[in-house]
Amino acid sequence: MTALQVAGGALVGFIAGVLSGLFGVGGGIITTPAVNAMLGGTAIQAVATPLPVILPTSIVGAYTYAKAQQVSFRAVRWATGPGIVGAIIGAWLTELVNTHLLLVITAGLIVVTSVQVIRGRAPKTPWRRGTTAGWKFGVVGGAAGFVSGLLGVGGGIIIVPAFTTWIGMPLKRALGTSLAIIAVLVIPGTIVHALLGNIDWAIFLVLTLGVVPGARIGARLALGARERTLRVAVGCFLLVVAAAYGIRELSFLPGSGG
């Protein structure tokens, strides 16, 4: 790896870290294509190497939110178990279903919930700390894990809008809680890919140079932002992600000409 690649990788990691801290996602949206296009990684390394990178990213971000008392550890406890099971099932079904169609559908659902996040839509039952039924967190965790395992997308794009629009959790608390859940969900996949030899640890180290400070800065920016401003920013980010995934995957569907 050249000095220019190291510098570029650290910069990519920093950007991914900032996005992670700001929007409660893992950052793989940025690091996955960069591993393949910029850092010389193979296709499988582009999928596998961002997983261990997400771990320190989400831990640093979650820690920053936790210091501000913006992490629901009750939600984390309820969501992580179903999330791990969902990720395993999703990964197992990858070869059995049309993932392109499912990703288009998922993108559509994210668009709907993104608009609701921007509008500040409140659920019928107002949020009260410690009163939400635990099974609701479990459903969200299971769905996020399943989509992540099946489609290879970050669980945060499911967790954040679901927590805010369905459960009614305040946005900053949803972002911090999402990062804490992601930190747990990424561990099984990291172990599997490490055992298979799919992770380029040199690229991991280069990306980590940037993601750790980036995640802390992103989380601090989110914590200092006004609720309305943050809602618009998070909603628009999710819309961009949904559009990018949806448009790309539509080209793979039968009759699309792709």
List the helices and strands in order: HHHHHHHHHHH
- Low-confidence sequence ranges: none
User: What would the average pLDDT be, to the nearest integer?
Assistant: 85
The rounded distance between the terminal residues' Cα atoms is 34 Å
Q: Bin the strand percentage.
A: under 5%
> What structural class do you assign from the helix and strand content?
mainly alpha
Report the major sheet. none
Our Rg estimate from Cα atoms comes to 17 Å
- The overall strand count is 0
- Helical percent range? over 70%
Number of domains: 1
What is the overall shape? globular
Number of helices: 11
Short description:
By secondary structure, the chain is mostly helical. It has one domain (3-250).
